[in-house]
Automatic annotation (TrEMBL):
It comes from Mycobacterium spongiae. This is Phosphotransferase. SUPFAM superfamilies: Protein kinase-like (PK-like) (SSF56112). Residues 3-239 form the Aminoglycoside phosphotransferase domain. Pfam families: APH.
C-alpha cells in the first residue's frame, strides 16, 4: 500500500487487490468520523447520484461508516489514471487544451448541480453564518475580515434554488488525463464537504486566486481560462443564468472562507495541537487573502 495523502481527518491510500482475474488498482480512503465531513456511506450515495446526472466520479466498490472491519469508517473505489498536481497539468496544456478543460469543468459542475439532493444525510446551512461562527470560535480576527463580513451582510443577494453542492470543487480535486489540446476531466474527487446549498458557492470557490496556482488573472477560473468563459460554459450546460453581481458576492465570501481556513490551520500549529511547518506556512497566507479581499471589495464598493 502507498499513502497518497494524510490529512487531519482522513488519509488516502493506493493499493492493488489480487483476484482470480489478476491485479486490480484501487483507492482506500479511511479516517475517524467527525462533525464537519460527510460520512463514507453518504459520500458513496452522493457520488452515485452525481454519476447518474453525468458527472465523472470514480466507481465505488464499498463504503462503510462502521469501524468494525478496518478500525475506522472507509471507502474503496477504482483507481482513475491521470494527474492532480495543478502545476504539472498547467505545463502540459496548450491554449486550446486549457479552453477545452475549463468548459469541461463547467459542464461537470452543472451535472453535479443537477443531481438529486434530497438525501436526508445532507446538511444545509447559511454559509455566511457558518464562516462567521468558525472565525469567532478562534477568538481572533483582522480588520479586513471584519470589513468583508460587514460588506457581505449589507450586499447579500436574493437566494437561488438549492442544489447539491460539492463544497470543495477546485483544481487539485480533479483528475486530469491527457495533455496538449486534448485533456480529459477523468474524475471529481474529495466529496467530504458535500451539502445542499447554492450553485454560486461551487462556482466562486473554483475561481478564487489560491486555486490559480500562479496563473495570471486572465485565467481566473482555476488557472485555465477566464472567469467569464467558465460562467458562460456553465450557463450553457445548466440552462440557467448566472447573475454576475451575485457571483461577485459569493467570490468575496469564498475568498474570506479561504482566509478563515488559513487562520484556522495556523491556529492548529500555534496552539501545539499539530506542530507542522506546512500548517504554519498556510497560516502565513492569511495576508494574501486580505489583499485579495481588499481588491474584491474595491471592485464591489457601493
Amino acid at each position: 500500500m502507498r499513502i497518497l495523502t494524510g490529512g487531519a481527518s482522513r488519509s488516502t491510500w493506493a493499493f492493488d487487490a489480487i483476484t482470480g482475474e489478476g491485479r486490480r488498482a484501487l483507492i482506500l480512503r479511511i479516517g475517524p468520523p467527525d462533525d464537519v465531513h460527510a460520512g463514507m456511506e453518504l459520500e458513496a450515495r452522493v457520488q452515485a447520484a452525481a454519476a447518474a446526472a453525468g458527472a465523472p466520479v470514480p466507481p465505488i466498490l464499498i463504503a462503510d461508516d462502521s469501524d468494525a472491519a478496518l478500525g475506522n469508517p472507509f471507502l474503496i473505489c477504482e483507481h482513475i489514471a491521470g494527474e492532480t498536481i495543478v502545476r504539472r497539468i498547467q505545463r502540459q496544456l496548450d491554449e486550446p487544451g486549457r479552453e477545452r478543460l475549463v468548459r469541461r469543468c463547467a459542464q461537470a459542475l452543472a451535472a453535479i448541480h443537477r443531481a438529486e439532493s434530497n438525501d436526508p444525510g445532507l446538511a444545509q446551512g447559511d454559509q455566511l453564518a457558518v464562516w462567521r461562527e468558525r472565525l469567532d470560535a478562534m477568538e481572533d480576527t483582522t480588520a479586513t475580515f471584519e470589513w468583508a463580513f460587514r460588506w457581505l451582510a449589507r450586499h447579500r443577494p436574493p437566494s437561488s434554488p438549492a442544489v447539491l453542492v460539492h463544497g470543495d470543487y477546485r483544481m487539485g480535486n480533479l483528475i486530469i488525463d491527457g495533455s496538449g489540446s486534448a485533456p480529459v476531466l477523468a474524475a471529481v474527487l474529495d466529496w467530504e464537504l458535500v451539502h445542499v446549498g447554492e450553485a454560486y458557492e461551487d462556482l466562486a470557490w473554483f475561481c478564487i486566486r489560491a486555486w490559480r496556482f500562479g496563473a495570471p488573472a486572465s485565467r481566473g477560473a482555476g488557472g485555465l481560462g477566464s472567469i467569464d468563459s467558465f460562467l458562460h460554459a456553465y450557463e450553457e450546460a445548466s440552462a440557467t443564468d448566472v447573475d454576475r453581481a451575485a457571483f461577485h458576492w459569493w467570490l468575496v465570501l469564498a475568498t474570506l472562507r479561504w482566509g478563515v481556513i488559513c487562520r484556522y490551520q495556523a491556529q492548529r500549529h500555534l496552539s501545539g495541537q499539530v506542530r507542522s511547518v506546512e500548517l504554519a506556512t498556510i497560516g502565513r497566507r492569511v495576508c494574501e487573502t486580505e489583499w485579495d479581499l481588499l481588491q474584491l471589495l474595491d471592485r464591489g464598493a457601493s
